[in-house]
Amino acid sequence: MRVAAIIPVLNEEATIGAVLKAVPSHVVDEIFVVDNGSTDATAKIATDLGATVIHEARRGYGYACYAGAQAAVGYEILVFLDGDGADDPREIPLLLEPILQDRADVVLGSRTRGNHEPDALLLHARFGNWLTARLMCLLYNLEVSDLGPFRAIKRSVFMNLDMQEMTYGWTTEMMVKAAKQGYRIHEVPVSYYKRAGGKSKISGTLRGSFLAAYHILKTTLRYAL
User: Fold this and answer.
1) Looking at the 3D structure of the chain, how many domains does it have?
2) How far apart are CA 66 and CA 34, in angstroms?
């Protein structure tokens, strides 16, 4: 099964090089870096390192991920990860294994079950993850421990989900829709680190944290109804 890695970025020139170099080429066939409006050298660095760079002008994490998925025609598995160095690309095989062994359709990387660097997951983020995970168990019978962005999904499954949440609710929508449609969801422990450079667009600001929490909870409840 051919694998595409999709990395949404916004001003990640300090980190994208190391992230791309760490992606294991023996399991990933192509890397799509989706530039969501960077004003620095992120896109040039990615291009120089051999990634396929896509420009998505509509600002939003979901828009960037969706653009990468749409571009990855001919690939059976999509891997989503961030470009800030917080996820460890060397662990991509951990996400692929359950799909390749036909034990899962969606694989989520759990930061809370894995080894995370101190202060990499802020207190409000950990609480939000815990609360949303409990709601998902109650409303969707979905047993998960985290809502992290590092994940793998069959492209055919992704296309069937008809994703609509193009900002903060993207990762949550993928999970609850997959659960409602009866797809096999598996969770594996992954490592997580403090971002290696740049500035967080979500948890690093009060506004970003509030909006993320609002959209995550709204999405979780919306699809249950």
Assistant:
1) 1
2) 9
Alpha helices in 106-196 (DSSP H): 123-140, 155-161, 170-180
Q: What is the DSSP letter of 116?
A: B
CA-nearest of 140, 128, 135, 149 to 19 is 149
Instruction: Determine how β-strand 77-80 pairs with β-strand 151-154.
Output: antiparallel
The amino acid present at 48, given as its one-letter code, is: D
Helix (H, G, I), strand (E, B) or coil at 42: helix
Task: Provide the residue range defining the domain that includes 34.
Answer: 3-224
DSSP state of 91: G
CATH number at residue 117: 3.90.550.10
Q: Are 187 and 98 in contact (CB under 8 A)?
A: no
Taking the C-alpha atoms of residue 87 and residue 191, their distance in angstroms, rounded to an integer, is 7
User: Tokens representing 5?
Assistant: 């890695």
Show contacts of 202-207: CB within 8 Å, 24+ apart. Answer: 202/168, 203/122, 203/124, 203/125
Q: What is the pLDDT along the chain (225 residues), one digit of tens a residue?
A: 999 999 999 999 999 999 999 999 999 999 999 999 999 999 999 999 999 999 999 999 999 999 999 999 999 999 999 999 999 999 999 999 999 999 999 999 999 999 888 888 777 778 888 888 899 999 999 999 999 999 999 999 999 999 999 988 899 999 999 999 999 999 999 999 987 765 655 555 556 667 777 878 888 888 887
